[in-house]
Write a structure and sequence with these properties.
mainly alpha, single chain, two-stranded antiparallel sheet, 175 residues
């Protein structure tokens, strides 16, 4: 972490090597923060400096005062990384690798074009042992701008029968 200069002459420090009651901005995080996280950091820094109170900070961020206290504690302990959600840079445990999704899309385009998505999902699960749900496979294919083929109804052209007065007379005369 970057070093923080303190304007307060105190020997007490808290975990994270930040001086207690510091009025300086916390060190920059290692990874880029979103706009909302930068706003949180700005507001919490103002709270730490004493410019605003906890209630006003809570209203500015749209969170409760308890959450503001927790954010303040995290910023004091961890620096500016305290406002970043801890799971932000982790991949979900049930996420499917991008290579598998590309393989599924290529497989559909080369060998199974014209097969509906539900049937294709069954084929992929059985023959290729890929444990992905039908909806996941559907999402991969839709992201690749592939549409499931729809059942084709044969269109019948409706003809309109027009009868004129002459036709009616001629049919009566024949009988």
């Amino acid at each position: 972490m970057d070093e923080v200069k303190s304007t307060v002459n105190t020997q007490e420090t808290i975990p994270g090597n930040l001086p207690l009651n510091t009025t300086e901005v916390a060190p920059k995080p290692k990874k880029k923060m979103s706009r909302a996280e930068r706003k949180k950091l700005r507001v919490i820094t103002r709270l730490i400096e004493g410019e605003i109170n906890g209630t006003k900070a809570a209203k500015m961020l749209g969170i409760t005062t308890r959450q503001v206290r927790n954010l303040k504690r995290q910023v004091l302990e961890q620096g500016s990384e305290g406002v970043i959600h801890k799971n932000k840079y982790y991949k979900p445990y049930n996420a499917i690798d991008g290579e598998i999704s590309e393989f599924i899309v290529k497989l559909y385009r080369k060998e199974y074009r014209g097969t509906n998505f539900s049937e294709f999902a069954r084929i992929v699960q059985k023959e290729y042992n890929i444990e992905a749900s039908r909806s996941t496979i559907y999402n991969f294919l839709r992201r690749a701008r592939i549409r499931s083929p729809q059942r084709k109804k044969k269109k019948t052209k409706k003809t309109m029968v027009t009868t004129s007065a002459k036709d009616i007379k001629s049919s009566k005369e024949k009988n």
